[in-house]
Amino acid sequence: MLILVMLALLVFSRVVGKVHVSQCAAVDSYPILRLYLQPGDVIIGAIISQTLFATSPKDFKCQSREMRLCQTQISITITYRDISKGFMPQNYQHILALAFAVKEINENPHILPNLTLGFHIYDSHLNPKLTYRAALQHISPRNRFVPNYRCHIQDNVQAVLEDINSDDSQIVQDLFSIYKIPQSDMVGNDYMKGYLKSFSELYEKMMGSTANIIIFKGQTRTFLNARGMIELAQIKYMVAKPKGKVWIVTVHMDLKTYHDKLSRDVQIFHGMISVSLHLNELQGFQDFFKSRKPSTAEGDLFLKDFWSYTFRCAFPDSVMGNVHQANCTGDETLKDLPAFEVSMTGHSYNIYNAVYAVAYALHAMHSSKVQAKMQGETRKLTIHQPWQLHHFLRCVSFNNSAGDQISFDHNGELIAGLDIINWVTFPNQSFVRVKVGKIHAQAPLQQALQLDEESMVWHPRFHQVRPVSLCSENCSPGYRMTKREGEPFCCYNCSQCPEGTISDHQDMPDCFQCSVGHFPHKDQKCCIPKMISFLSYEEPLGAGLILVALTLSLITLFVLGIFIKHHSTPIVKANNSKLTYTLLNSLLLCFLCALLFIGKPGKIMCLLRQTAFGIIFSIAVSSVLAKTITVIVAFMATKPGSRMRKWVGKRLSVSIVLSCCLIQVGICIIWLVKSPPFPDVDMHSMTEEVVLECNDASPTMFYCVLGYMGLLASVSFLVAFIARKLPDSFNEAKFITFSMLIFCTVWLSFVPAYLSIKGKYMVAVEIFSILASSAGLLGFIFFPKCFIIVLRPELNHRAQLIRKNQ
Fold first, then answer.
1. What angle do CA 435, 440, 444 make, to 5 degrees?
2. Are residues 647 and 605 both part of a single domain?
């Protein structure tokens, strides 16, 4: 990917007065031999690599084998002949992409009218020294090496495009920003030996690893060095030959065909995967490329080297080629080489777009100056500072000739997708790029990658089957990855998801809970919708409770009928028959009250459930209490001179029942006014069910109702226990004692059971408590009397009562 570096030339020193010729001439120990200059009113500079000059990337001092290069021009020429073996012909396309874009812009009357666009292109040789030298030339006069002087006003360099192949971006940026030259210690040959040994050990470890994937991060020079190191390691350290691996490289790297006896084997990279800037074929570019000839490309010193390499010939005055090759006639044509790659690459496409971006920014800047002049300001249109271009570059947005939109984000990064490239190599060391996918720039993350896996070509070792490079088996759904201590992040164990969580994809780093209304499947691979649950009439539990409640209600009605039929008998009249009828009616309502707890909860049902239960039970228990107190008061009133006789009668029993009931009614009214119960949905209590329930809204009020009822039952039990041995033939106290013991036991057991279960079973427990406690009162108080009335009528006489009292 070409990095568009808009390096505004911070300071152009203005020389006041006359500039002597000696000031614009300097001794140049590093003349630039490969360059391409095209004049213009506005100049774009470029640093592009076409030949490789190997040296240390960490300092600017000469290596021992390069010392001659630092002395004379003759030595430089010899050295360039040596390093011509590192020639990379593909990069000539980058130069043509720039020239093609400038040609189109100059022919377009709508971009930079009345101005011509030119360029200065210098070769950096993938070398930090020569990269720095090329950068200095951009701030020197044309064809002279005098940095920081402007001797020719026509050399109006506005922007510098830096080739992707350069690892020395920071060098160029530092120079054009603050003019500081980097300094570092010399790296000798004994460093290099240690580096080669370390690389050999690393390479042998990679080849011996069970991993099938090698991810290489770096830039072109690093990749070229790695290729050379592989060859040297095999020769010097006898490391194993390369195994078939899948190489995955970054966008900065590219396979290069260059004339070098080292690193000649490209087949180890067969099936390599890389990413490239998205491109479309530009109309006219291939014809422009194929029509290129040395005789028509004036000023292009790159072309002769490219021509010599491509046609295996030599020009008399060129540093490329050798004496054993035929002379180049210049009449050769690229059309005669149909297999030669002339299709535009992603790097060249980006150069083309970069030139257009600069041109549109320059056009916008000049248009603003024309408008300013029309408003009365006087400025020279062609004299301005390069830093002024930054503002216009940020706003550039246009469609290129291929139809792609070119624009930049807020960070100045190009908004563009990436193509996924599969590299296919051949025994003759050639290769082709195959586009197998795309990464969309602005698509959602899960939809960004588009890959045609069937078009992928793998290394022959994998027999065209997708390689797997894992140190762990895939974790199936229902499991999660857990890191292995001391091993790479990609090595992990698989652990079962914790209870209540799931994982629904392979290799999930963690499990998660189901959404509301769902619960985990037993294998914890997916979520299942919860079933709606409530105590309904249709299910066996609900139907059984209804049957019991109705049966007890019928029994109560039967007992009430017996007592009404025999209302004049002593056993009915002995213990306040009206209290007896009140108790029987309240028990009947208690049994029927249980039906309010069965069925789908509704608003009215929720309001009546607990309040009706509390009030009706309070009437029943207070009736029992009134019966017991009546027995005690009647016995005490029989003693001579007792003052209790005035309390004997109906007034006492009515007062007890009313006063006890009114307190419970008051509690229920406060509950209904303050926070009434309401229908609710319980999503969390049950694992597999959504429970429809009546929310009591205020647990405090519910336990107040229950506690008050328990208080009445406790007092009734205590009073009945005291009165159980009073001498009376029809004394109910002993039966009331047993009934209240059952009542208290049931409700004391209800509280922990109610708190320990969830869902519809809470309702079932409350219904059971209502039925059991009511049945206890009915059975222990009324069944003995019914037995006498129905089966032993001879005992139901006043004479029997008098005899027992005597």
1. 145
2. yes
